[in-house]
Amino acid sequence: MGYYEFTIEAPAESADSLLSLTGDSGSLGAFENEKGLIIYFPDHVGIEKLCHDIERYRNILKDSGLPSDFAYNYTYISERDWNESWKKKFQPIDVGERISIIPPWEKPKNGRVSLIIDPGMAFGTGHHDTTRTCLEHIERLCKERSRDRFLDIGTGTGILAICAAKMGFREIVGVDIDPLAVDAAQRNIALNDLAGVQIMEGTISVTSGVYDVIAANLLSEILIAIASEIAVRLKPGGSALLSGMIIGQEEEVMAAMEKEGLKLKERHYDGVRWVTVVVTR
Ligand code: SAH
């Protein structure tokens, strides 16, 4: 078996929809870099079908009013080159003051907090700006207040939950609606040999109790939809870290949070694309 690596220069507003659409074509994994979305498919799907599917997804985006004028290209990777090519893409990344994200085949770095993440199929390898920003905030937030309970909504690979556990939080809960993400998160937690991290399938509504820190790296529509539940699950004085919003969407998200009694504490712009806010109660 071989693989096709597609590079799609998708505009930020379309990237998430495109990612979920390409799942229907059997994508094996994806990440984002400065060129755009990099998505892998097994070659048995057939290159003609893949190109045809992408044009079909372009029409779906257009019909939904999302930007659809993107270019793409692809390369074929043979089975033999696959491991090397995949591994090369996942070099260790240093984040914040002392965090390193490392794939399982690399050695942990001395003197740094290593988050071992198998890129697998779920979102959250640290190659995305918003994940890195969340990690930096978690590193900083845990200096500010007690590290008792941490909630990660949309845990993906489990990277933020794993970071919280390594930063000393006592009890960590991660949830994700995608069963593949739940599996990946559980595997990564085992790779990091962590206790005290519980991963559940579902959204914030499957959680209970209150948390010192809540992290939610999700699209703005979802953040708005769960604003009231975030408010209920946050301890007074706690911090909710909301990321994944495209610049311009933060006012709407903040309006939804303020309606639930949450107040803006910090706002962080990542280049020209993403914004992260910290709210408190
Ligand atoms: N926390 C990781 C992954 C973020 S990607 C990181 O910061 O890198 C967003 C994840 O949220 C995906 O895995 C997706 O399946 C999940 N998700 C989307 N909507 C959700 C919802 N309403 N509740 C819980 N998880 C959700």
Query: Residue-averaged pLDDT, rounded?
Result: 90
Regions with little confidence, pLDDT below 50 for 5+ residues = none
Unique ligands? S-adenosyl-L-homocysteine
Q: Give the termini separation.
A: 53 Å
Based on CA inertia axes, which overall geometry fits? globular
**Topology, number of strands:** 14
Which properties best describe this structure?
single chain, 281 residues, alpha/beta, seven-stranded mixed sheet, four-stranded antiparallel sheet, 36% helix, binds S-adenosyl-L-homocysteine
Walk me through this protein's architecture:
The chain has a seven-stranded mixed β-sheet with strand order 10-9-8-11-12-14-13, with helices on both faces. Strands 2-3-1-4 form a four-stranded antiparallel β-sheet. Helix 1 packs across helix 2. The protein is α/β, with parallel strands linked by helices and 281 residues long. The protein contains nine helices and 14 strands. Strand 9, helix 6 (179-191) and strand 10 form a beta-alpha-beta unit. 36% of the residues lie in helices and 31% in strands. The site of S-adenosyl-L-homocysteine has 21 residues, from helix 4, helix 5 and strand 9.
Question: How would the blueprint of this fold be written?
Answer:
Elements: E1 3-8, H1 12-23, E2 29-33, E3 36-42, H2 47-63, E4 72-77, H3 79-89, E5 93-95, E6 99-102, E7 113-116, H4 129-144, E8 149-153, H5 159-166, E9 171-176, H6 179-191, E10 197-201, E11 211-217, H7 220-225, H8 227-233, E12 234-246, H9 250-259, E13 263-270, E14 274-280
Helix pairs in contact: 1-2, 4-5, 8-9
Bound molecules: S-adenosyl-L-homocysteine.
